[in-house]
Amino acid sequence: MPTPPDLSSKAGALKKVAGVGALVGVLLLGVLLFVRPTTVSTGPDQVALHYSDGAFTPRRFKDCVSPSTRAWDGPGDKHYSYPSSQRNYVFGEEGDRGHVTFVTKDGIEMSVDGVAAFMLNTDCDVLRKFHDLIGNRYAAYMDTADGNGSQGWLRMLSVYISRPLETAIDRAGQNYSYTELYTDPNVKAQWETEVLEQMPDLVGRQIDGEEAFFTDFAITLQKPVPPESVKAALVAQQESVAKAKAKEAEAAAQVKAAQAQVEVEKAEAAKIAERIAVLGREGYLKQYAIDHGLNPYQPTTGGLITDSGQ
């Protein structure tokens, strides 16, 4: 049965309305995607850089966001967070990189673990230059809200902190022998100080411009370790020295004991001489015998009375 003309026209009109509504919905959704605001929330040890980057706006720096701040900005804007507290770059087992090796003045390769601490300069103008020159290139900004650095941050540090650190450790290490660094804590402390003194200049040489992107360096170095073969030889040498010193001490003690005995004997001889001077030699001998439980008055045949005439 054919559809009445009035119903057919109404159905067509409804389809057109539905199509227009769907189109309007898509357009509204698209508008919302473009116009919804962006937000940033910095932690107590974070700052952020705010850049405009909307569909209809050029990418341009806007402002810096202070620590512990939540802000809403224009649609499509970008925020890049960086640490404002001290950062540690750990080298060694389970660190951000492996141990650092260097060569001493006597040609021995040693290895050392430790920590290089520093601050990222978060002055707004300086941080913006750091981001434009370095941070954005390595994606070194924070990608989590827990304050940990991103993989890009570690890649950046491997260039701008790790390499100067290797140079500083190696240069300072060439001033000392391996035995001095391994056995003398005062030498090790001086070496650590020399490494720290070189860090700002070595880091600054890799950065274009006059800005100091990294500041407030601190270095903590563990006891440097020579190769196992060298360490074993050093231990054997130390044991040999210890044994030699023990023998020297024993010999010195024996000499002192002998000297003391001589002094005792001299004193005894002087005492005997004085008694002989008082008692005479025979008197001293008799007194000596009495003192030692002997009888100095033994009978003699010359003292016996015989009667040969009877």
UniProtKB/TrEMBL annotation:
The keyword Transmembrane helix is assigned to this record: yes
Coiled coil ranges: 241-275
InterPro entries registered for this protein in UniProt: Band_7
Regions crossing the membrane: 17-35
Alphabetic keyword roster: Coiled coil, Membrane, Transmembrane, Transmembrane helix
Band domain: residues covered: 74-254
Protein name: Band 7 domain-containing protein
Organism field: Nocardioides seonyuensis
